[in-house]
Amino acid sequence: MSGDRAAPVFSIDIALRRGSFERAVHIESSARVIALVGESGAGKTSILQAIAGLVRPQRGHIEIGGQRLFDAARGIDVPAHRRRIGYVFQDARLFPHLDVRRNLLYGYRGIAREQPRFALPAIVDLLGIGALLDRRTAGLSGGELQRVALGRALMSQPRILLLDEPLSMLDMNRREDLLPYLQRVRDEIALPMIYVSHYPDEVRRIAAYDVHAIG
Ligand SMILES: Nc1ncnc2c1ncn2[C@@H]1O[C@H](COP(=O)(O)OP(=O)(O)OP(=O)(O)O)[C@@H](O)[C@H]1O
After folding, report:
1. For the ABC transporter domain, which residue ranges apply (predicted)?
2. Hey, whose CA ends up nearest to atom 17 of ligand 1?
């Protein structure tokens, strides 16, 4: 056996405090896609927020895909807007006054023109949302909203994808409809990805081999 080990994609060792809540988190993984599971209130969303730079850990470090995002000992704390995180929430959080095309193009905001980026048609194809482009988001179904939210996150050309229970607002059938799109994004957009869910079946189908229990 060789002594070589794959460099970890995720190296997270932090302590979080939010009000009276405290949690130490240690995740070391060379998998590109991992899942976080745990009871409500265990701290899963707080971990994603720390990765995104929205919550500052008390100590420790966060390194993902070779990027040191936070390191208390070395004085590193990359500002949230420079971390290039694609974040998809339980509720899609799209702009209701804009159509789907404009919601997607909003993802380009803040990206330099010369930077390589996903073209709109590629994302539209990947997520099967071509027929929705001219519609306002107000009338879309939950599953359509989440596909558009995922598209907008990808348009921002992220280096890391964080998915916080993206299917939890959908009923069983819609969840089944959306899972293949999540799998396509996982496989075709080769980014480090963290998937948070309460549902063992979803976790098994998205990040089968690297599941971290929080709490
Ligand atoms: N802004 C805040 N101020 C104080 N406490 C907070 C804040 N945000 C979260 N908390 C607390 O931190 C703990 C962890 O919350 P978090 O949302 O990270 O858990 P979770 O595992 O994602 O839960 P769920 O599965 O219900 O979404 C909870 O006790 C919560 O009340």
Report:
1. 4-215
2. 45
Report the pocket of ligand 1 as residue ranges, CB < 6 Å: 18-19, 21, 38, 40-46
- Encoding tokens for residue 106? 């909003």
Alpha helices in 73-199 (DSSP H): 100-106, 120-127, 142-155, 172-188
pLDDT digits (tens, 9 = 90+) for 140-173: 999 999 999 999 999 999 999 999 999 998 888 8
Task: Write the CA distances from 81 to 99, 156, 167, integer angstroms.
Answer: 24, 11, 26
Helix (H) or strand (E) holding 22: strand 21-29
**Cβ-contact 32, 194 below 8 angstroms:** no
Tens of pLDDT along 119-146?
999 999 999 999 999 999 998 999 999 9
- Helix H or strand E segment including 207: helix 200-207
**pTM, entire model:** 0.93
Closest CA to 214 of 48, 19, 70, 20: 48
Token representation of residue 22: 């405290």
For ligand 1, atom 16, name the residue with the nearest CA.
43
Please name the residue whose Cα sits nearest to atom 14 of ligand 1. Answer: 43
Between the CA of 199 and the centroid of ligand 1 the distance, in Å, is: 18
